[in-house]
Amino acid sequence: ATAAQTATDTHRTVAVAHRGASAYAPENTLASIDAAHELGIRWVENDVQRTKDGELVILHDNTLARTTNVEQVFPDRAPWNVADFTLHEIEKLDAGSWFDPEFKGERVPTFEDYMDEVENNGQKLLMELKSPELYPGIEVQALAELDHAGWLNRSHVKRRLIIQSFNADTIKTVHTVRPDIKTGFLGNPSVADLPKYAEYCDQINPHHKAVTSDYIAAVHGLRGPHHRPMELYTWTIDDGPTAVKVADLGVDGIITNKPDVVRDALEGS
Ligand code: G3P
Ligand code: CA
Fold first, then answer.
1. 52 CA to middle of ligand 1, Å?
2. Which CATH superfamily is domain 3-268 in?
3. Does the ipTM exceed 0.90?
4. Domain GP-PDE spans what residues (predicted)?
5. Predicted TM-score (pTM) of this structure
6. Is residue 219 a contact partner of residue 190, using CB atoms and an 8 Å limit?
7. Quick check: 47 and 17 in contact, CB under 8 A?
8. Is pLDDT of 248 > 50?
């Protein structure tokens, strides 16, 4: 067996669709999670932010400029921060045409509509609270809305949900309010600092260039708040050879815009 076979035989690495299958459909739209679903991908990743009137929406950038037609619809509202627009205004925007005319009419999803689609597709969600420092209280709000969507029952929490953030305080808050939920910290703390993170993080999720076998071993050597070895998911890898390489190092998940390419490479290695 090659190293890849050995690694994948004993240790399964999961492909997570980054912002949905975002190489094939506009990121963070319902079309992007449907594209992942059509490829047979169970895990999707997203980014959650908040509108001016306090509604949660799914969007990566802090501004609407790159992934919608906001500059045409609201030319006088630069820099087009999502936090400066009401949901009613955001619902007027086209979040698909920038990617391909085929996706004209896609919307910036509301949290509720997005969760319904993930549920209907039978998918699992790696949910990122993006730039939480801009949105005080978004942790508790997101948890309340997850609960409302039926996602905080025992089986969803156990099998279908992980909440991650670049902001450690946000993850601490999520863990304090709902200690049953799995959490991930986006970044690569020093090995010396990892035990502190293990108190409230089930995962450490670094950029792939920061991943080494020693670092993975250090993460796996600690138990997280749910008394299981901590995991490591890495981002963003879209080519098969790199995916196989990091899977061989022992990562638990690969966050990718091309989840079919990564899955097929891992299965074929
Ligand atoms: O899930 C990891 C990855 O999404 C972090 O970076 O900028 O794509 O949110 P970003
Ligand atoms: Ca993200």
1. 23
2. Phosphatidylinositol (PI) phosphodiesterase (3.20.20.190)
3. yes
4. 13-266
5. 0.96
6. no
7. no
8. yes
Backbone angles phi, psi at 231, to 5 degrees: -110, 170
Distance CA 80, CA 78 (A): 5
**Ligand 1 midpoint to CA 10 (Å):** 27
Q: Is the CB of 235 under 6 A from ligand 1?
A: yes
> What value does the mean pLDDT take over residues 13-41?
99
Q: Which two three-digit tokens encode residue 4? A: 């890849």
User: Nearest 5°: phi and psi at 184?
Assistant: -135, 140
The 3-state DSSP class for residue 139 equals: helix
Tell me if 128 CB under 6 Å of ligand 1.
yes
Give yes or no for residue 18 CB within 6 A of ligand 1.
yes
Q: What is the pLDDT of residue 269?
A: 76
Buried b (16+ CB within 10 A) or exposed e, 5-18: eebbeeeebbbbbb
**Amino acid code (one letter) for 71:** E
C-alpha 269/C-alpha 265 separation (Å) is: 6
Q: What is the pLDDT of residue 1?
A: 37
Instruction: Find, among 199, 208, 135, the residue nearest to 171 by Cα.
Output: 199
Tokens of 147: 């609960």
Inter-CA distances, 244 with 141, 230, 261, 267, Å: 38, 21, 11, 9
In the chain, where the domains are located:
3-268
**Residues that are catalytic:** 18, 60
3-state secondary structure of 146: helix
Is 10 a residue whose pLDDT tops 80? no
